[in-house]
Write a structure and sequence with these properties.
Elements (H helix, E strand, L loop, with lengths): L14 H5 L6 H18 L5 H5 L1 H10 L6 E5 L5 H9 L34 H14 L6 E6 L6 H10 L7 E6 L10 H8 L4 H16 L8 H16 L4 H4 L3 E7 L3 H11 L6 E6 L7 H5 L29 H15 L3 E5 L9 H6 L4 E3 L4 H13 L3 E7 H4 L3 H9 L6 E5 L16 H5 L5 E4 L4 H13 L4 E5 L23 E4 L4 E6 L3 H12 L5 E5 L2 E3 L3 H10 L2 E9 L4 H11 L5 E7 L9 H7 L4 H9 L3
Parallel strand pairs: 1-2, 2-3, 3-5, 4-5, 6-7, 6-8, 8-9, 9-11, 10-11, 13-14, 13-16, 16-17
Antiparallel strand pairs: 10-15, 12-14
């Protein structure tokens, strides 16, 4: 390799190329890698801040470890753009998050260098521990590294992994990327602990020297490691006058160290990589490092869209005629409700900006709770609030609510507690892809007793459903709505409670009945308008509620139509279409039913219109189904 090339990064296709460089070239690699991320993302939007903060760590890991044989498990995945660029995807990086392009998250199906999929948070320690134990059982000399950060340490699964790491033989290396940030600022006791933690580097060196000496004297073996570790931890507590959380889990701790000093990181990783037993390296980084606007406003620059890389100006097209975002309709409506009733509180797991809970946070900070990346806790915490007479609006992204499924059943539904569960990002979400599509909620929630499940056709209905959920007295109330803009209706209506379990007929027709749920019904409206001009007569029913179903409406459909189309922005198995089929079978109706929804596969990333077309859910595809339904 010509290491004198003007752009070293151009010569690095894979980590083996990186490892051929002398160590003194690594700072230049970091500089070019960081600039490359900025250059590409300025035109092709993605998650900017997190990956800028891990540039030095990424370079050091691939320089020290023999990837892909050695495993790097990234947590959360949007820290890994630099990793993608160094592992064979530099030339394809401009296709990031585009249809048929590379994913915005690690994906083993995309590259052997992606050890484990990571779209959300807190799974790295458990997954990496499994890999490390498997390597030991197979007698493979493989290093396994879990990189956890961006707020992921607040997730309960991370603590389960930590707790188990010392119970089984493994040589797992955990790297804690501590930037004091998730998407919004990290919250909670652990976050403050990581800010305040201090560790004697001199002591760490002394302890390592003692360790090496004892090992040479053959005074350390696996049976004595635990006793030696406890001695070391006690010694450290004595010298530093503090007890270390991680060493309390019997995990050797190193740090904190500067995560932007690539040379020092290389040295440290080489020093500790062959130490026996689980160990944790605590690095301090800055989210958005190297791009001042992102350093100054990390939340805004988490996923900023297109921007001017020279001036730092975000390229936002402001149009007065644009419809409101569903999340903003939620946020403003919640404030209005909270002004009327002091019992209303808002809860979100680390997504106050993403779900617009920030509006309530500004108006009523004492009644707004960001619980960190802890979806299960957010639901059970809401249940506790409801048990004592509060009315919690718990807002969780649909795909992330999957983590709280047990809590919905046991802590909310079983006790018929009045919790309003607001599922933002329901349905296909676009460029974030399979890990973030909120397509399973209708199917996984429908079997649970004591739940009301509803979805609005537009912004007006969202407000009314929020009021309906607030006024409901018969258990938990679920409202699901999509990412992005509404339907440009005047949503500043005086809120009213909708009759629970009642749909409505939107359009008269005699040949075919279309039953839709939620905003995807607007695609049906367009399709019906198109085929009407060709002589088709299609009735359209907006179900509004998946549970309870409007049985009067379904009897009307069953009696009058022999052809039924169901439409939902969710998996086709178990949702609205399945519910309609069950009703028809149970009541002796025998229509032909065509179900339109997400097919039985994980859907890739791309724009929402592209994915609607891919799944046959756009207006043109629905019109074709109507035309050929016999």
């Amino acid at each position: 390799m010509d290491i004198c090339n003007e752009h070293i990064l151009d010569e690095i296709d894979y980590p083996a190329d990186l490892r051929n460089l002398p160590e003194d070239k690594l700072p230049e690699v970091c500089k070019e890698l960081r600039q490359y991320i900025i250059d590409v993302l300025s035109e092709n939007p993605g998650h900017l801040g997190a990956s800028l903060g891990t540039v030095e760590l990424t370079v050091a890991l691939h320089y020290v470890f023999n990837t892909p044989f050695d495993r790097i498990v990234w947590d959360v995945g949007h820290q890994a753009y630099g990793h993608k660029i160094l592992t064979g995807r530099r030339k394809a990086f401009h296709t990031l998050r585009k249809l048929h392009g590379i994913s915005g998250f690690p994906n083993p199906a995309e590259s052997e260098y992606d050890a484990f999929i990571a779209g959300h948070a807190s799974n790295s320690i458990s997954a990496a521990m499994g890999m490390s134990v498997a390597s030991a059982l197979k007698q493979e000399e493989r290093h396994v590294i879990a990189v956890i950060g961006d707020g992921a340490m607040t997730g309960g699964l991370a603590f389960e992994g930590l707790n188990n790491a010392s119970a089984n033989p493994n040589n797992l290396l955990i790297i804690l990327n501590d930037n004091n940030m998730a998407i919004d600022h990290s919250v909670g006791g652990l976050s403050q602990y990581l800010v305040n933690i201090t560790t004697s580097q001199a002591y760490n060196k002394m302890r390592y020297d003692v360790y090496r000496g004892l090992r040479k004297m053959k005074l350390i073996d696996d049976s004595r490691r635990e006793n030696i570790l406890r001695f070391n931890n006690s010694l450290k507590a004595l010298l530093t006058q503090q007890h270390n959380l991680f060493e309390g889990f019997s995990i050797r701790y190193f740090g904190p160290v500067d995560g932007h000093d690539v040379g020092h990181l290389v040295k440290l990783l080489n020093d500790i990589k062959d130490l026996q037993g689980p160990k944790l390296l605590h690095i301090k980084t800055k989210k958005g490092k190297g791009f001042k606007p992102a350093e100054d406003s990390a939340t805004e620059w988490h996923a900023p869209g297109r921007f001017n890389k020279e001036t730092g100006e975000r390229i936002i097209v402001h149009r007065t005629d644009e419809p409101q975002l569903y999340q903003d309709v939620f946020g403003h409506t919640l404030v209005e409700l909270a002004e009327q009733d002091k019992r209303i509180v808002g809860i979100t797991p680390a997504m106050p900006t993403g779900c617009s809970m920030t509006f309530l946070m500004k108006a009523f900070p004492e009644r707004t709770f960001d619980v960190g990346i802890a979806e299960g806790h957010s639901v059970t915490f809401s249940a506790g609030l409801a048990k004592e007479g509060m009315i919690p609006f718990c807002n969780v992204y649909s795909s992330f609510m999957q983590r709280a499924y047990d809590m919905i059943i046991h802590d909310v539904a079983l006790q018929k507690l009045h919790v309003v569960l607001c599922l933002d990002r329901a349905g296909l979400v676009g460029e974030d892809g399979a890990t973030h599509h909120g397509v399973f909620d209708l199917a996984y929630l429908r079997p649970i007793p004591n739940l009301t499940i509803a979805s609005p056709l537009d912004e007006w209905d969202l407000r009314n459903l929020m009021y309906t959920g607030y006024a409901a007295q018969n258990g938990a109330f679920v409202i699901r709505y999509p990412r992005g803009k509404g339907e440009k209706v005047d949503w500043h209506n005086e809120m009213k409670a909708l009759p629970i379990g009642k749909g409505r007929k939107l359009h008269e027709g005699r040949d075919i009945a279309v039953l839709s749920l939620g905003p995807i019904g607007n695609e049906a409206i367009k399709a019906i308008h198109a085929v009407e001009k060709e002589g088709f007569s299609v009735a359209h029913y907006d179900m509004i509620f998946l549970k309870p179903l409007d049985e009067d409406l379904l009897h009307e459909v069953g009696r009058n139509f022999h052809r039924i189309i169901t439409l939902e922005n969710g998996v086709i198995k178990g949702g609205l279409g399945s519910a309609v089929l069950e009703f028809m079978a149970d009541n002796g109706y025998t229509p032909k039913v065509k179900r339109i929804g997400i097919p039985d596969r994980f859907i890739e990333h791309g724009s929402v219109p592209e994915l609607f077309q891919l799944c046959g859910m756009d207006a043109a595809s629905i019109a074709e189904v109507i035309r050929h339904f016999e």
